[in-house]
Amino acid sequence: MSTAEETSGDDAPWGEVTPEAARRLLVAAVDAFAERGYHATTTRDIAGRAGMSPAALYIHYKTKEELLHRISKIGHDRALHLLQAEADGDGTAAERLAGAVRSFVRWHAERHTTARVVQYELDALGPEHRTEIVELRRRSDAVVRGIISEGVRAGEFDVPDIPGTTLAVLSLCIDVARWFNAQGSRTPDEVGALYADLVLRMVGAPPQP
Amino acid sequence: MSTAEETSGDDAPWGEVTPEAARRLLVAAVDAFAERGYHATTTRDIAGRAGMSPAALYIHYKTKEELLHRISKIGHDRALHLLQAEADGDGTAAERLAGAVRSFVRWHAERHTTARVVQYELDALGPEHRTEIVELRRRSDAVVRGIISEGVRAGEFDVPDIPGTTLAVLSLCIDVARWFNAQGSRTPDEVGALYADLVLRMVGAPPQP
Lengths: 209, 209
Known about the structure:
Structural class of chain A: mainly alpha
Oligomer: homodimer
Largest sheet of chain A: none
Number of domains of chain A: 1
Largest interface: A-B, 29 and 29 residues
Helix content of chain A: 55-70%
Order of helices and strands of chain A: HHHHHHHHHH
CATH superfamily of chain A: Tetracycline Repressor, domain 2
Shape of chain A: elongated
Mean pLDDT of chain A: 93
Low-confidence stretches of chain A: 6-10
């Protein structure tokens, strides 16, 4: 029922969702949304995938949109947290930017099914939830822009267009969710290492040891 | 009915689709797939958007999958053609790579609704059509890899991982379709110029004049 990706990663995915039935429904919703799209999925489909009745679903979630919001909120919180942890670390701007890229790429690769829903179904959120999620995205953007700006100020980086480069760095990492294939030739860590190197080149950092 | 993007671009979009009714249905299908996803769209929805009856649709397309295949085939042919034209041009590898990025980005920005359908609904194609499209994608990949390899051989570029860098370059351009907003602060040409510069940095090319 659950996708292979849900067993990978360095922490229990959806561990914050309780009780267990609510978590099971969330995992089923991620799979259904990723496979058929939000609009083609019904709450009946989700309940069926979770081995539950539609009535049992409504105990935990009032609407399909509430499920999407929960998935999107947890995913965006997680992404922001990963970036912030790297930004707050010790080390040069280059080391922290490389760490942020590795961490963000790894998440989009290991959790690609979730990441696709989180990144591609934004338009299906209601206005209030959409505003909340857009604010989380602004904060993620600000974290990466902050590291790049620090690198420029410290003379480590040479970046003519800081907002544009920030957008490109995040975009490159996010698109991993589209093409990453767990059966492919590269592991999440390998893609993270490759992309960290490419991003340091983008910001004009000298090659890292 | 048709999206704003369909009026932009440097050539008549879908000009190869005739008669006019078939073209109108195709444009309606692009809009519907982009808005609600392939699986949530019915042939009735598409006919309705085109101001036609479902029976009239079946004169032109036997199935919904045939519409998606037609959209995907035209989109991928166009993308390959744009890249190939730049690869075949005069100039150094750096000039041709920059041209390919500008052209590919511009297409994904100007035609972002179409590009989203083309890039995100691959899994909805039937096996035979999917194989055909995957082959077109392999050829696009080979064109970009070819320019990068030539730059390395000529001593213009310094690229430790040519396939990985090719993947990243195409991925960066493709993701423009996800975030590009015609009301945003950057034009397709501006994004193309920014990304061409970032990609030259990725391949270790000296700054261009």
